[in-house]
Amino acid sequence: AQSVTQLDSQVPVFEEAPVELRCNYSSSVSVYLFWYVQYPNQGLQLLLKYLSGSTLVESINGFEAEFNKSQTSFHLRKPSVHISDTAEYFCAVSESSNYKLTFGKGTLLTVNP
Amino acid sequence: DTEVTQTPKHLVMGMTNKKSLKCEQHMGHRAMYWYKQKAKKPPELMFVYSYEKLSINESVPSRFSPECPNSSLLNLHLHALQPEDSALYLCASSQTTQGASTDTQYFGPGTRLTVL
């Protein structure tokens, strides 16, 4: 069965600083990896996803994530964060053999002025 | 239009009440989902509908009863709930059916349910 570990439950940073949110997964088959963001009192929005091909994927708002098969990781990075990036970030995995999306416990990113 | 709408936004109900949550999408998606999210926790899958048929029930208690009247609508009927059922209930949809594990799921804003 697949599982996802987000090592940091909270990450506080200052505005314009770089940030990395860590995600590790466990699966015995091929996986697809997703990062979703949840702003306060809202539903989840897809930030980016890795299905195949280039291991580096980017979002339209400056986030990027790199799929590392040997380390079973899919860490999310942004070189310079904004106050508006404050949100809960969920890493999720689905396996090629089933429909189910398994979420990590989430990382609360708080960007301070 | 990539929007999933949910009504109501907030719902307070007693343990003897019967209420319903509604979800709607007009993206032509054929898979729809109900998730439950407790505070500071990830979403937990409850049900999956595929082509208007219930395909997955993640061992959800019978006090939660899903219904898919047509390809755009998904309801969740609630009866005799417990206080521990208080949570944010999220609806999602995706283009294809179960097994298409590469699909993006589009989430609604959720209904915040409080059971007294």
Which key phrases capture this entry?
heterodimer, A: 113 residues, mainly beta, six-stranded mixed beta sheet, four-stranded antiparallel beta sheet, 12 strands, 0% helix, globular, B: 116 residues, seven-stranded mixed beta sheet
Q: Most extensive chain contact?
A: A-B, 24 and 25 residues
Q: Low-confidence parts of chain B, pLDDT < 50 over ≥5 residues?
A: none
Shape annotation of chain B: globular
- The overall strand count of chain B is 11
Give the biggest sheet of chain A.
Answer: 6 strands, mixed
What is the N-to-C succession of helices and strands of chain B? Answer: EEEEEEEEEEE
- Supply the helix-strand structural class of chain B: mainly beta
Chain oligomer state = heterodimer
**Count of alpha/pi helices of chain B:** 0
Order of helices and strands of chain A: EEEEEEEEEEEE
The average pLDDT of chain A is 91
Count of separate DSSP helical elements of chain A: 0
What level of helicity do the residues of chain A show?
Answer: under 10%
Q: Residue ranges of chain A: pLDDT <50 for 5 or more in a row?
A: none
Tell me briefly what this model is.
The complex is a heterodimer of chains A (113) and B (116). Chain A is mainly β and 113 residues long.
Can you tell me about this structure?
Chain A has strands at residues 3-5, 10-14, 19-21, 24-26, 31-38, 44-50, 56-58, 64-68, 73-78, 87-95, 102-103, 107-112. With 113 residues, chain A is an all-beta fold. In chain A, strands 2, 5, 6, 10, 11 and 12 form a six-stranded mixed beta sheet that branches. The mean pLDDT of chain A is 91. With 116 residues, chain B is mostly beta strands. Chain B is built from no helices and eleven strands. Chain B has strands at 4-7, 10-13, 18-25, 31-37, 44-50, 53-57, 64-70, 73-79, 87-94, 106-107, 111-115. In chain B, strands 2, 4, 5, 6, 9, 10 and 11 form a seven-stranded mixed beta sheet that branches. A four-stranded antiparallel beta sheet of chain B has the order 1-3-8-7, with no helix packed on it. In chain B, a hairpin with a 6-residue loop joins strand 4 and strand 5. The radius of gyration of chain B is 13 Å and the shape is globular. The N and C termini of chain B lie far apart (36 Å). In chain B, 37% of the residues are buried. The model of chain B has no long low-confidence stretch (mean pLDDT 91). The interface between A and B is medium-sized, with 24 and 25 residues.
